[in-house]
Amino acid sequence: MPVDEKKVQEIVQEVMAKIQIAQAPSGKHGIFSDMNDAIEAARKADEVVRRMTMDQREKIISEIRRSIRDNAEILARMGVDETGMGNVGDKILKHHLVADKTPGTEDIKTQAWSGDRGLTLVEMGPFGVIGAITPCTNPSETVLCNSIGMIAGGNTVVFNPHPAAIKTSIYAINLVNEASLAAGGPDNVACTVEKPTMDTSAIMMKHPAIQLIAATGGPGVVTAVLSSGRRGIGAGAGNPPALVDETADVRKAARDIVNGCTFDNNLPCIAEKEIVAVASIADELMDYLLTENDCYLASKEEQDKLIQVCIPGGRLNRKCVGRDARTLLSMIGVDAPVNIRCIVFEGPKEHPLISTELMMPILGVVRAKDFDDAVEQAVWLEHGNRHSAHIHSKNVDHITKYAKAIDTAILVKNGPSYAAIGFGGEGFCTFTIASRTGEGLTSAQAFTKRRRCVMSDSLCIR
């Protein structure tokens, strides 16, 4: 039997990567057993960071970026191995995106105006120690993206990561502190606890040193933050619909939607979760999904089984979140071809696999009688989260009408969803999209206070 050299190489690379992970640093920098100790350490580090020049902050951020690139594969494999969600290849791309396109100190700007009565400046100043809650869906990506933005703003941060991704989160937090030390900055610019719980989260949210909390997670987490008595940045749930109208390039729309939906097995909150298609092109769209984009058409019986497995009793089965399409099909006894990337079917908007945010590569197609009906159904499916939505259309009036009706923080036009965070599209990267509290795509600016400095009757030299 001939030896498949390529396969052997892939196995060797995978084994070596796992050995690297096993031998990776335990995360001694910024890791504490008690949340109060973690906050105190971050507070002491903040006394140094807030006095740093912008150049000094940028040196730390540059070192973080370098370290993310160097550790992208390790972080990706750790995330998949620990949580069972997503896929390594796409997570590597996401880490490179964080390293390359998360704004740093260039995002901190000064506003100034002068007149007969003098000069006024508005500066962006730090909050101090920020509390951050991060998810298991994008654990290291969120930790690293938040750290860059928060340090750029002159802050330090204490994380309460999701317990299901604590090893990956600790590795990322350790990486941030090692980068700070390498750039001449202090230790403990990012801190956490070894065993994060609801109790440690409560301590963080009530601690007097924490005046701003940034939460990336489900609606329960965001609600808790907004009830904390602190200023909250809440990045919550979404159920982004992709609308396809009669003017769209239907073949391209099918390709873009599947590419966006299957990226990291649909874990990004911005990813396409369902399709609303105008009836006149619905059959054509479905044909492209099945014949050119490796989609599997689920029968009524298979849909019912998927409901029982993926959302038993109406509750999301965490063992299904972030799994690939073939794995999901195997859970209902279907041995799908190796090329299958996505599960599709047609159904009403109320179908449980359509109306629920699944974070799985499952795309229900809702047929609309015309564009106005499509907009109405898409708005209903977005559930007022004001998070993300997508449209494929060549009609500017249609795009405008949809944008106003859906009123989301993100609207992607004629592209895959990940274009929204700078991957194949213009703009910066973020993994904290605060639609519920109105900040939208957060960056360093979101983690600063506006401070006005007025010089009365002086320094206007016009």
Task: Describe the protein.
The structure is a single chain. The protein is an alpha/beta fold and 462 residues long. It has 2 domains: 26-236 and 441-451, 3-Layer(aba) Sandwich (Aldehyde Dehydrogenase, Chain A, domain 1), CATH 3.40.605.10; 241-429, 3-Layer(aba) Sandwich (Aldehyde Dehydrogenase, Chain A, domain 2), CATH 3.40.309. It has 15 helices and 18 strands. It has helices at 5-22, 35-49, 54-83, 88-101, 139-152, 166-182, 198-206, 219-226, 250-262, 279-292, 300-310, 325-330, 352-355, 371-382, 396-406, and strands at residues 31-32, 111-115, 118-126, 129-134, 156-161, 190-193, 210-216, 231-235, 241-244, 274-278, 295-297, 342-346, 362-368, 388-392, 410-413, 433-434, 440-441, 448-456. The chain has a 7-stranded parallel beta sheet with strand order 11-12-13-10-9-14-15, sandwiched between helices. Helix 8 (219-226) links the parallel strand 7 (210-216) and strand 8. Mean pLDDT is 93; it is low at 18-26.
Give the gist of this structure.
The chain is an alpha/beta fold. 42% of the residues lie in helices and 19% in strands. The chain has two domains: 26-236 and 441-451, 3-Layer(aba) Sandwich (Aldehyde Dehydrogenase, Chain A, domain 1), CATH 3.40.605.10; 241-429, Aldehyde Dehydrogenase, Chain A, domain 2, CATH 3.40.309.
